[in-house]
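Reopening this one. Same input as before:
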Amino acid sequence: MILIPIIREQATSLIQNWPGYWTRLVEQFDSLLSSTIFSQLQGKLDDMDPRIIKSITEQTNGFIDSAFSGIGSVLGTVTNVVIALLTMPVLLFFLLKDGRDLPYHTMKLLPIKTSDFIYFTDIHAVRSPLYRRSSPC
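Same output, byte for byte:
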């Protein structure tokens, strides 16, 4: 709650100052393009073999693609872990609190005919053969 006014002020400031930021960015880019260092680099790039430039471009694109896919997978994993850590205590609490009544609460979600059949059938009688231990021979 404390961060919302701060974020709002920062966003408002960015929107109000955007034309000035854009003008400075364009000026810096124009000065970079007109500098002697860039003109020397442009001349050397023109002298290079096009295959080398293509190879550099492909390697750079491959690096950028792998970097972003790696970042995406890390963020996905972190998100899954955070969601699991946030929901696990809630689910655990309600399963421990109302675990015995869970079959009856589930029956309320079923259609009436199905829930009546299950309600009048003793759930424990159906489950009990599964949990009986056979006597040792």
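So the earlier flakiness isn't reproducible anymore. For the record, The first helix runs from residue 3 to 34.
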